[in-house]
Amino acid sequence: MNSKTARLRFAPSPNGYLHLGHAYSALVNKHIADELNGELILRMENIDTIRCTTEFENAIVEDLSWLECDFQKPFRRQSEHFSDYRKAFNELEKLGLVYPAFLTRGEVKEIIAEAERKGKNWPRDPDGVPLYPTDERSLSPVKAKKMIAEGVPYSWRLNMDLARRFLNKELFWYEFKGHETGKIIARPELWGDVIIARKDIPTSYHLSVVVDDALQKISHVVRGADLFQATSVHRLLQEILGYKPPLYYHHPLVLGRDGHKLSKSSKDTSLRSLREHGLSLQDILAILPEI
């Protein structure tokens, strides 16, 4: 690829303050964009309009400026582009690849527990989460519409079996850096019937990230190794929707003292807090893995 066409993105969710893991990812993106003489853009992945706030968004922009990570402006907010995701969802719906799913978490647990009592090993996705039961794939459209009209909570899921048969081709992507460099075979079926959209939000992470990367002409996706396996789902959606796939690099994660990846939900020390305690940019760089 001509380096002049390289286009990368850093895409945090403004539902908390950035931690060291985010700082590392932003800096790796900047480093590779500079290597390729390419563009680096910022995207706010804020489809969760309840947890994502302007306060956190402003804090992210401020932290990135402090890290000397310069991004093109203006940046994209997913919450302002639901129509783009709706259009992509409609394509999947027209192809008959999605279905409304009504099971609650409690009901799913009961189904799995009953199956395991009978000696069945329930399949799990690459993150270790039990796959969603597939019985609702055959739910009649009449009954589904009735349940929706009655206000029964639901989400839209991808019928993975139909999607794979529809595509009927080998899926793969290319990693351009790291120990996994080369052609990687995608196995989206390992994820089962993933959520594609919700009742009140016409998208999910999987769908919106694929649409955004295509619309923003992202040539190189640089993100954490925790999303390596999820790339299989993204490649499937890209092929179905006719999007050109980017190259990928899944960089190592910054781990906490307990050996687990840093997390906002675990209230790991924020970059802002470290700055307030007097750490300089050079101090932060010394803490982080070598880029």
From TrEMBL:
One of its GO terms (biological process) is glutamyl-tRNA aminoacylation. GO terms for cellular component: cytosol. It is an enzyme of class 6 (ligase). Pfam families: tRNA-synt_1c. One of its GO terms (molecular function) is ATP binding. Keywords: Aminoacyl-tRNA synthetase, ATP-binding, Ligase, Metal-binding, Nucleotide-binding, Protein biosynthesis, Zinc. InterPro entries: aa-tRNA-synth_I_CS, Glu/Gln-tRNA-synth, Glu/Gln-tRNA-synth_Ib_cat-dom, GluQ/Sye, Rossmann-like_a/b/a_fold. Residues 7-272 form the Glutamyl/glutaminyl-tRNA synthetase class Ib catalytic domain. Its EC number is 6.1.1.-. Belongs to the class-I aminoacyl-tRNA synthetase family. NCBIfam families: PRK05710.1-4. This is Glutamyl-Q tRNA(Asp) synthetase. It comes from Bartonella choladocola.
